[in-house]
Specification:
By secondary structure, this protein is an alpha/beta fold. It has a single domain, classed as Rossmann fold (3-Layer(aba) Sandwich). It has nine helices and eight strands. Helix 8 links the parallel strand 7 and strand 8. It starts with a strand and ends in a 12-residue tail after the last helix. 48% of the residues are buried. The structure holds NADP nicotinamide-adenine-dinucleotide phosphate.
Protein backbone atom coordinates (compact mmCIF):
# COMPACT_ATOMS: atom_id res chain seq x y z
CA UNK A 1 0.00 0.00 0.00
CA UNK A 2 1.11 3.60 -0.48
CA UNK A 3 1.30 5.24 2.95
CA UNK A 4 2.17 8.91 3.33
CA UNK A 5 3.10 10.88 6.40
CA UNK A 6 2.24 14.54 6.84
CA UNK A 7 4.73 15.50 9.49
CA UNK A 8 8.19 14.01 9.64
CA UNK A 9 8.70 13.94 13.38
CA UNK A 10 8.80 11.21 16.00
CA UNK A 11 5.43 9.62 15.24
CA UNK A 12 5.75 9.74 11.45
CA UNK A 13 9.25 8.31 11.51
CA UNK A 14 8.22 5.42 13.74
CA UNK A 15 5.14 4.54 11.69
CA UNK A 16 7.24 4.91 8.53
CA UNK A 17 9.79 2.43 9.86
CA UNK A 18 7.09 -0.13 10.64
CA UNK A 19 5.37 0.38 7.29
CA UNK A 20 8.61 0.07 5.31
CA UNK A 21 9.53 -3.08 7.25
CA UNK A 22 6.21 -4.57 6.12
CA UNK A 23 6.75 -3.76 2.47
CA UNK A 24 4.68 -0.60 2.07
CA UNK A 25 5.73 2.31 -0.12
CA UNK A 26 6.19 5.36 2.09
CA UNK A 27 6.53 9.11 1.62
CA UNK A 28 7.27 11.55 4.45
CA UNK A 29 6.66 15.28 4.28
CA UNK A 30 6.79 18.41 6.37
CA UNK A 31 5.82 22.04 5.98
CA UNK A 32 9.10 22.99 4.31
CA UNK A 33 10.91 22.06 1.13
CA UNK A 34 11.57 18.34 0.60
CA UNK A 35 15.30 19.03 0.59
CA UNK A 36 15.01 19.50 4.37
CA UNK A 37 14.09 15.79 4.50
CA UNK A 38 16.94 14.55 2.32
CA UNK A 39 18.85 12.74 5.08
CA UNK A 40 15.68 11.45 6.71
CA UNK A 41 14.38 9.96 3.46
CA UNK A 42 17.76 8.41 2.76
CA UNK A 43 18.00 7.00 6.27
CA UNK A 44 14.50 5.56 6.32
CA UNK A 45 14.60 4.43 2.71
CA UNK A 46 11.47 6.27 1.63
CA UNK A 47 10.29 9.06 -0.62
CA UNK A 48 10.02 12.64 0.52
CA UNK A 49 7.81 15.45 -0.65
CA UNK A 50 5.65 18.36 0.29
CA UNK A 51 2.51 17.81 2.34
CA UNK A 52 0.56 18.20 -0.89
CA UNK A 53 2.73 15.53 -2.56
CA UNK A 54 2.10 13.23 0.40
CA UNK A 55 -1.64 13.78 0.25
CA UNK A 56 -1.66 12.86 -3.44
CA UNK A 57 0.70 9.88 -3.01
CA UNK A 58 -0.90 8.14 -0.04
CA UNK A 59 -3.76 5.71 -0.19
CA UNK A 60 -3.58 6.08 3.57
CA UNK A 61 -2.16 9.33 4.98
CA UNK A 62 -0.94 9.72 8.56
CA UNK A 63 -1.32 13.25 9.91
CA UNK A 64 1.16 13.70 12.77
CA UNK A 65 1.73 17.41 13.24
CA UNK A 66 1.26 19.80 16.14
CA UNK A 67 -2.49 20.21 16.57
CA UNK A 68 -2.03 23.93 16.01
CA UNK A 69 -0.97 23.15 12.39
CA UNK A 70 -4.11 21.31 11.25
CA UNK A 71 -5.45 24.44 9.56
CA UNK A 72 -2.52 24.36 7.14
CA UNK A 73 -3.10 20.88 5.69
CA UNK A 74 -3.80 20.33 1.97
CA UNK A 75 -7.53 19.72 2.37
CA UNK A 76 -8.40 19.45 -1.33
CA UNK A 77 -5.71 16.84 -2.00
CA UNK A 78 -6.87 14.85 1.04
CA UNK A 79 -10.47 14.63 -0.18
CA UNK A 80 -11.50 10.98 -0.28
CA UNK A 81 -8.27 9.82 1.38
CA UNK A 82 -8.10 7.66 4.48
CA UNK A 83 -6.42 9.90 7.05
CA UNK A 84 -4.99 8.46 10.25
CA UNK A 85 -5.07 11.18 12.89
CA UNK A 86 -2.30 10.83 15.47
CA UNK A 87 -2.63 14.34 16.84
CA UNK A 88 -3.02 15.24 20.49
CA UNK A 89 -3.77 18.49 22.27
CA UNK A 90 -1.00 20.01 24.37
CA UNK A 91 -1.93 23.60 25.30
CA UNK A 92 1.68 24.45 26.12
CA UNK A 93 2.47 23.77 22.46
CA UNK A 94 -0.84 24.36 20.69
CA UNK A 95 -2.24 27.25 22.75
CA UNK A 96 -5.55 27.02 24.61
CA UNK A 97 -8.36 25.72 22.39
CA UNK A 98 -11.62 26.65 24.15
CA UNK A 99 -13.79 24.01 22.45
CA UNK A 100 -11.44 21.26 23.64
CA UNK A 101 -11.07 22.81 27.09
CA UNK A 102 -14.89 22.83 27.34
CA UNK A 103 -15.06 19.19 26.11
CA UNK A 104 -17.35 20.30 23.28
CA UNK A 105 -15.38 18.50 20.60
CA UNK A 106 -12.48 16.12 20.10
CA UNK A 107 -9.16 16.61 18.38
CA UNK A 108 -10.33 14.32 15.56
CA UNK A 109 -13.59 16.19 15.09
CA UNK A 110 -11.51 19.35 14.79
CA UNK A 111 -9.42 17.68 12.10
CA UNK A 112 -12.59 16.51 10.36
CA UNK A 113 -13.76 20.10 10.22
CA UNK A 114 -10.51 21.08 8.49
CA UNK A 115 -10.66 18.06 6.15
CA UNK A 116 -14.40 17.67 5.52
CA UNK A 117 -13.99 15.21 2.64
CA UNK A 118 -11.30 12.99 4.19
CA UNK A 119 -12.08 9.65 5.80
CA UNK A 120 -10.59 10.24 9.23
CA UNK A 121 -9.63 7.51 11.66
CA UNK A 122 -8.08 8.39 15.01
CA UNK A 123 -5.03 6.12 15.31
CA UNK A 124 -1.50 6.00 16.73
CA UNK A 125 -2.17 8.90 19.14
CA UNK A 126 -2.29 6.80 22.30
CA UNK A 127 1.17 5.28 22.21
CA UNK A 128 4.45 7.09 22.73
CA UNK A 129 6.42 7.41 19.53
CA UNK A 130 9.47 5.90 21.19
CA UNK A 131 7.48 2.72 21.93
CA UNK A 132 6.05 2.22 18.45
CA UNK A 133 8.85 0.20 16.89
CA UNK A 134 10.06 -1.33 20.17
CA UNK A 135 6.66 -2.71 21.22
CA UNK A 136 5.46 -4.03 17.85
CA UNK A 137 4.86 -7.78 17.94
CA UNK A 138 3.56 -10.38 15.49
CA UNK A 139 -0.07 -11.49 15.81
CA UNK A 140 -0.52 -13.98 18.60
CA UNK A 141 2.46 -12.83 20.70
CA UNK A 142 1.56 -13.00 24.38
CA UNK A 143 2.80 -9.46 25.03
CA UNK A 144 1.27 -7.80 21.98
CA UNK A 145 -0.19 -4.37 22.82
CA UNK A 146 -3.57 -3.10 21.77
CA UNK A 147 -4.14 0.33 20.25
CA UNK A 148 -7.47 2.17 20.06
CA UNK A 149 -9.01 3.52 16.87
CA UNK A 150 -12.12 5.59 16.22
CA UNK A 151 -13.83 6.78 13.08
CA UNK A 152 -17.11 7.49 11.36
CA UNK A 153 -16.29 5.73 8.06
CA UNK A 154 -16.60 1.97 8.62
CA UNK A 155 -14.54 0.95 5.60
CA UNK A 156 -11.73 3.40 6.41
CA UNK A 157 -11.68 2.11 9.97
CA UNK A 158 -11.52 -1.48 8.76
CA UNK A 159 -8.53 -0.66 6.53
CA UNK A 160 -6.72 1.16 9.34
CA UNK A 161 -7.42 -1.70 11.76
CA UNK A 162 -5.96 -4.18 9.27
CA UNK A 163 -2.88 -1.96 8.86
CA UNK A 164 -2.35 -1.60 12.62
CA UNK A 165 -2.68 -5.35 13.05
CA UNK A 166 -0.12 -5.94 10.31
CA UNK A 167 2.31 -3.41 11.81
CA UNK A 168 2.38 -5.20 15.16
CA UNK A 169 -0.58 -4.30 17.35
CA UNK A 170 -4.08 -5.50 18.14
CA UNK A 171 -6.62 -2.81 17.31
CA UNK A 172 -9.63 -2.02 19.48
CA UNK A 173 -12.56 -0.15 17.93
CA UNK A 174 -13.42 2.67 20.32
CA UNK A 175 -16.35 3.98 18.29
CA UNK A 176 -16.95 7.15 16.29
CA UNK A 177 -14.85 10.31 16.15
CA UNK A 178 -17.11 11.86 18.79
CA UNK A 179 -16.10 9.00 21.11
CA UNK A 180 -12.36 9.46 20.56
CA UNK A 181 -12.03 11.64 23.71
CA UNK A 182 -11.89 8.31 25.53
CA UNK A 183 -8.28 7.90 24.43
CA UNK A 184 -7.14 11.48 24.23
CA UNK A 185 -4.39 12.88 26.46
CA UNK A 186 -4.62 11.99 30.15
CA UNK A 187 -7.44 9.50 29.82
CA UNK A 188 -6.85 6.03 31.32
CA UNK A 189 -6.17 4.46 27.89
CA UNK A 190 -3.58 7.07 26.89
CA UNK A 191 -0.09 5.75 26.25
CA UNK A 192 -0.32 2.78 28.64
CA UNK A 193 0.43 -0.75 27.38
CA UNK A 194 -2.75 -2.85 27.48
CA UNK A 195 -3.95 -6.06 25.93
CA UNK A 196 -7.33 -5.75 24.13
CA UNK A 197 -9.37 -6.57 27.24
CA UNK A 198 -7.42 -4.13 29.39
CA UNK A 199 -7.76 -1.44 26.76
CA UNK A 200 -11.52 -1.93 26.52
CA UNK A 201 -11.77 -1.55 30.30
CA UNK A 202 -9.63 1.60 30.24
CA UNK A 203 -11.78 3.07 27.46
CA UNK A 204 -14.95 2.27 29.42
CA UNK A 205 -13.49 3.80 32.60
CA UNK A 206 -12.77 7.16 30.95
CA UNK A 207 -14.76 10.13 32.22
CA UNK A 208 -15.04 13.14 29.96
CA UNK A 209 -14.21 15.74 32.58
CA UNK A 210 -11.55 13.78 34.42
CA UNK A 211 -7.90 13.85 33.44
CA UNK A 212 -5.65 11.20 34.91
CA UNK A 213 -2.04 12.13 34.22
CA UNK A 214 0.07 9.03 33.83
CA UNK A 215 2.19 9.71 36.88
CA UNK A 216 -0.96 9.39 39.03
CA UNK A 217 -2.12 6.05 37.58
N1 LIG B 1 5.85 12.13 20.29
C1 LIG B 1 4.97 11.24 20.75
O1 LIG B 1 5.32 10.36 21.56
C2 LIG B 1 3.54 11.28 20.26
C3 LIG B 1 2.77 10.11 20.38
C4 LIG B 1 1.46 10.10 19.90
C5 LIG B 1 0.93 11.25 19.31
N2 LIG B 1 1.70 12.38 19.23
C6 LIG B 1 1.07 13.55 18.58
O2 LIG B 1 1.35 13.42 17.19
C7 LIG B 1 1.63 14.70 16.62
C8 LIG B 1 3.07 14.69 16.10
O3 LIG B 1 3.94 14.43 17.19
P1 LIG B 1 5.51 14.26 16.96
O4 LIG B 1 6.07 13.93 18.29
O5 LIG B 1 5.76 13.39 15.78
O6 LIG B 1 5.88 15.78 16.62
P2 LIG B 1 7.25 16.39 16.07
O7 LIG B 1 8.36 15.40 16.28
O8 LIG B 1 7.36 17.74 16.64
O9 LIG B 1 7.00 16.45 14.50
C9 LIG B 1 6.01 17.29 13.96
C10 LIG B 1 6.23 17.32 12.47
O10 LIG B 1 5.19 18.05 11.86
C11 LIG B 1 5.76 18.87 10.84
N3 LIG B 1 4.83 19.95 10.55
C12 LIG B 1 4.51 21.01 11.31
N4 LIG B 1 3.58 21.74 10.70
C13 LIG B 1 3.29 21.13 9.52
C14 LIG B 1 2.43 21.40 8.44
N5 LIG B 1 1.62 22.47 8.45
N6 LIG B 1 2.43 20.56 7.38
C15 LIG B 1 3.24 19.47 7.35
N7 LIG B 1 4.07 19.15 8.35
C16 LIG B 1 4.11 19.98 9.42
C17 LIG B 1 7.09 19.28 11.43
O11 LIG B 1 8.01 19.65 10.45
P3 LIG B 1 8.30 21.16 10.03
O12 LIG B 1 8.08 22.03 11.24
O13 LIG B 1 9.72 21.10 9.56
O14 LIG B 1 7.34 21.41 8.95
C18 LIG B 1 7.54 17.96 12.05
O15 LIG B 1 8.16 17.15 11.09
C19 LIG B 1 1.39 15.70 17.73
O16 LIG B 1 0.08 16.19 17.66
C20 LIG B 1 1.62 14.90 19.00
O17 LIG B 1 0.96 15.44 20.12
C21 LIG B 1 2.99 12.40 19.67
Amino acid sequence: MKIAMIGAGFVSQAVARLAIAHGHEVMVSNSREPKTLFSLGYGLGCRTGTAEDAAVFGEVVLVAVPLSAIGDLPAAALAGKIVMDANNYYPQRDGQIPALDARETTTSQMLARELPDARIVKAFNAIEARDLVKDARPAGASDRRALPVAGDDAEAKRIVIALIEQLGYDAVDAGALEDSWRFERDKPAYCIPFDPEGLRKALAAAERDVEVPRERR
